[in-house]
Design a protein that fits this description.
Blueprint: H1 2-14, H2 17-20, H3 25-30, H4 35-64, H5 73-95, H6 97-111, H7 114-126, H8 130-159, H9 170-185
Helix pairs in contact: 1-8, 4-5, 4-7, 4-8, 5-6, 5-7, 7-8, 8-9
Length: 191
């Protein structure tokens, strides 16, 4: 049990996929404009990553690996991720057309999010067990959401400060992400 708790902390903070492996950096810059969009994207990434990971783990382990088809992992996992998004959109549409109109663009964007695919491919390449893979997926997505929310708060503060002209826009965000990576790296001493 303590190993799973360590794995959860490590995947959310120490091995934060956005800051250590640059998965989802585009979303970090594009979708962290305000708290609302950061929270919505973080929750949608959490749901899609968790469901996709639970589905792809047995397929990767017992189908692709067994028949030596690991070269197809990326394509198969991307198709599974797209199917999960499609099923979620169909479910939301049955529940509420208004919610479907709101969530459709956001969930469609998560198909192309490299953080989701990166988490799923990492689970297979490292060879995690099913439980550890699920824990890594859930807390990796939570770490992604935390990073988005922190970046949204920092962007709000940057908006009201004087930034030198060469650093305006994306450059100051990349510098901020680098400083956040250094700060998150400081959590390695905890475990």
């Amino acid at each position: 049990m303590t190993k799973l708790i360590y794995a959860a902390i490590i995947s959310a903070f120490i091995n934060n996929l956005v800051l250590t492996r640059t998965f989802g950096t585009n979303s970090l810059i594009r979708d962290s404009r305000d708290y609302g969009s950061a929270i919505r994207l973080g929750v949608s990434i959490l749901i899609i990553t968790s469901l996709s990971s639970v589905i792809t783990w047995p397929i990767g382990r017992y189908l692709l690996e067994k028949f030596n088809l690991s070269a197809l992992e990326t394509i198969v996992f991307l198709l599974i991720e797209a199917a999960v998004v499609w099923l979620l959109l169909a479910l939301v549409r049955k529940i509420s057309e208004k919610k479907y109109q709101q969530l459709s663009p956001l969930l469609t964007l998560t198909i192309a999010n490299s953080a989701v695919l990166g988490i799923i491919l990492n689970n297979v390449s490292v060879g995690y067990s099913f439980v550890r893979s699920t824990v890594f997926s859930i807390f990796g997505a939570i770490g992604f959401g935390i990073t988005l929310i922190l970046m949204a708060g920092i962007r709000e503060r940057i908006r009201y400060n004087d930034v030198p002209q060469p650093f305006e826009g994306v450059p100051i965000l990349l510098v901020t992400a680098a400083l956040m990576a250094i700060a998150f790296y400081g959590f390695t001493g905890l475990i």
